[in-house]
Amino acid sequence: MPNRVKEEGNETVVFRFTINETGEVGNIEPLQGKHSRSLAALTNSVSTWKFEPAFNGTERVEAAARVLLIKGEDQFRFDVSSSFH
């Protein structure tokens, strides 16, 4: 997550992105929060995340994912649940 910076107010950003066959993130697109002051920092942070690759039987495959990022006055947190994918 980005460094904490104390700013007034709360923001939420929802990203859609892909996870390639090696577990790297790509094609990051904000679905909600496109005007967030933290959008650039959050996009940069998500771009560095690494996942276990998805498998289709025995083959690694690209997968689609979504994440909800919530920024409070002095913290960031994220939420990914099975119902959110």
> Which residues form runs of ≥5 with pLDDT under 50?
81-85
Q: Tell me the strand percentage band.
A: 35-45%
CATH top level label: Alpha Beta
Q: On the 0-100 scale, what is the average pLDDT?
A: 81
- Intertermini distance: 20 Å
Based on secondary structure, the structural category is mainly beta
Write the layout of secondary structure elements.
Blueprint: E1 11-19, E2 25-32, H1 39-47, E3 54-56, E4 59-61, E5 63-71, E6 76-79
Antiparallel strand pairs: 1-2, 1-5, 3-4, 5-6
Explain what this protein looks like in three dimensions.
With 85 residues, the protein is mainly β. 8% of the residues are buried. The chain starts with 10 loop residues before the first strand and ends in a 6-residue tail after the last strand. It has one helix at 39-47; strands at 11-19, 25-32, 54-56, 59-61, 63-71, 76-79. The chain is elongated, with a radius of gyration of 14 Å. Strand 5 and strand 6 form a beta hairpin. It has a four-stranded antiparallel beta sheet with strand order 2-1-5-6, with helices on one face. Helix content is 11%, strand content 42%. It has a single domain (11-84), classed as 2-Layer Sandwich (TolA/TonB C-terminal domain), CATH 3.30.2420.
